[in-house]
Amino acid sequence: MARTKRTDAVDVSPNGIPVYVVIGEREKFDTIALPVFEFDNRAESRGHVLTKSVDDPDGIPIIVFQHWLEE
Questions:
Q1: Strand partners for 63
Q2: Rounded Cα gap, residues 55 and 28, in angstroms
Protein backbone atom coordinates (compact mmCIF):
# COMPACT_ATOMS: atom_id res chain seq x y z
CA MET A 1 0.00 0.00 0.00
CA ALA A 2 1.26 3.50 -0.82
CA ARG A 3 2.34 5.83 1.93
CA THR A 4 0.88 9.30 1.64
CA LYS A 5 1.84 10.76 5.03
CA ARG A 6 4.70 13.25 4.86
CA THR A 7 6.72 11.78 7.73
CA ASP A 8 10.15 10.24 8.06
CA ALA A 9 10.52 6.63 9.19
CA VAL A 10 13.11 3.85 9.46
CA ASP A 11 12.30 0.17 8.97
CA VAL A 12 14.66 -2.82 9.05
CA SER A 13 14.18 -6.02 7.08
CA PRO A 14 13.83 -9.21 9.15
CA ASN A 15 17.47 -10.20 8.45
CA GLY A 16 18.72 -6.65 9.16
CA ILE A 17 19.59 -5.74 5.58
CA PRO A 18 18.50 -3.57 3.94
CA VAL A 19 17.51 -0.71 6.18
CA TYR A 20 14.69 1.36 4.68
CA VAL A 21 14.67 5.11 5.34
CA VAL A 22 11.46 6.84 4.31
CA ILE A 23 11.94 10.56 3.67
CA GLY A 24 8.66 12.47 3.94
CA GLU A 25 9.75 15.71 2.27
CA ARG A 26 10.74 15.59 -1.40
CA GLU A 27 13.19 18.47 -0.96
CA LYS A 28 15.06 16.55 1.75
CA PHE A 29 15.06 13.38 -0.39
CA ASP A 30 16.52 15.33 -3.33
CA THR A 31 19.56 16.38 -1.26
CA ILE A 32 20.80 12.76 -1.08
CA ALA A 33 23.56 12.59 -3.69
CA LEU A 34 22.70 9.21 -5.21
CA PRO A 35 21.00 8.15 -8.47
CA VAL A 36 17.22 8.04 -8.23
CA PHE A 37 14.93 5.27 -9.51
CA GLU A 38 11.15 5.49 -9.90
CA PHE A 39 8.80 2.58 -9.32
CA ASP A 40 5.17 3.10 -10.28
CA ASN A 41 3.23 0.14 -8.89
CA ARG A 42 -0.15 1.83 -8.63
CA ALA A 43 -1.70 -0.73 -10.95
CA GLU A 44 -0.89 -3.41 -8.35
CA SER A 45 -2.00 -1.09 -5.49
CA ARG A 46 1.57 -0.99 -4.20
CA GLY A 47 2.12 2.74 -4.66
CA HIS A 48 4.43 5.10 -6.48
CA VAL A 49 7.89 5.54 -4.96
CA LEU A 50 11.25 7.14 -5.67
CA THR A 51 14.27 5.26 -4.32
CA LYS A 52 18.01 5.81 -3.85
CA SER A 53 20.28 3.17 -2.35
CA VAL A 54 23.72 2.58 -0.89
CA ASP A 55 24.92 -0.81 -2.11
CA ASP A 56 27.65 -3.16 -0.91
CA PRO A 57 30.51 -4.09 -3.31
CA ASP A 58 28.36 -6.91 -4.76
CA GLY A 59 25.55 -4.47 -5.64
CA ILE A 60 23.23 -5.57 -2.84
CA PRO A 61 21.34 -2.65 -1.25
CA ILE A 62 22.33 -1.96 2.35
CA ILE A 63 20.38 1.27 2.86
CA VAL A 64 17.37 2.18 0.74
CA PHE A 65 16.06 5.74 0.85
CA GLN A 66 12.44 6.10 -0.27
CA HIS A 67 10.09 8.99 -0.99
CA TRP A 68 6.49 7.92 -1.56
CA LEU A 69 4.58 10.05 -4.06
CA GLU A 70 0.97 10.82 -3.29
CA GLU A 71 -1.66 9.23 -5.46
A1: 19, 54
A2: 20
Q: Look at residue 43 and give its three-state secondary structure.
A: helix
Let me know if residue 2 belongs to a domain. no
- As for how many domains the chain has, the answer is 1
Distance in angstroms (rounded) separating the CA atoms of residues 33 and 2? 24
Structural domain range at position 32: 9-68
15-51 pLDDT per residue, tens: 888 999 999 999 999 999 999 999 887 666 667 899 9
Q: How much is the pTM?
A: 0.79
In terms of C-beta density within 10 A (0-12 exposed, 13-18 middle, 19 or more buried), how is residue 41 classed?
Answer: exposed
